[in-house]
Write a structure and sequence with these properties.
This protein has about 160 residues and is mainly α. The chain is built from five helices and no strands. The longest helix has about 40 residues. The protein starts with a helix and ends with a helix.
Length: about 160
């Protein structure tokens, strides 16, 4: 019995050693990833995440502008909830503009009344959403930047109209 265990031990030991050497060979075949590659991959992932967030912000901006127009249509007043939506629209527009790496400018044509301002706001938000869908993370859209500046200018004008 003792001899049988020793013979079995010597038969099983070489098999386990062969199995371990094949694992070592597969580890040696893996490509070595450098720090530069890792940093580059992380930058790409971050840029893609920022681009997705910009698209989401553009979509949300359009939804809020539509609901704001519907809520205030026929009225010359904005409720507290509408004012919060307007603040959110301004915040989202700034986020989209910063993702594009652009700066702002003043509004060229001032709206006559609140309803006209909200209609222009909604049209600009629609264009922003459409442009952001067609945009890759490598490109910048002049149309998108102009419309975002329009939205920001209109939000300022709407706030002024509310205070009057």
């Amino acid at each position: 019995m003792y001899k049988f265990v020793i013979i079995l031990f010597f038969l099983v030991l070489p098999i386990s050693v062969l199995g371990q050497s094949s694992i070592d060979n597969s580890e040696q075949r893996r490509p070595i990833i450098t720090i530069e590659e890792t940093v580059s991959r992380n930058r790409i992932a971050l840029a893609e995440k920022d681009h997705r967030e910009m698209r989401t912000a553009a979509n949300e901006l359009n939804v809020l502008a539509k609901s704001l127009l519907r809520a205030a249509h026929g009225q010359c007043l904005l409720s507290n909830e509408d004012e919060k939506k307007l603040e959110k629209i301004e915040k989202l527009a700034k986020k989209v503009r910063s993702e594009q790496g652009a700066a702002g400018k003043d509004l060229m044509e001032k709206p006559e009344n609140l309803v006209a301002a909200l209609e222009r706001l909604q049209k600009a938000a629609e264009i922003i959403e459409l442009e952001s869908r067609n945009l890759s993370r490598h490109s910048i859209s002049i149309v998108l930047v102009e419309q975002v500046n329009e939205v920001l200018g209109l939000t300022k004008e709407i706030k002024k109209m509310k205070n009057k």
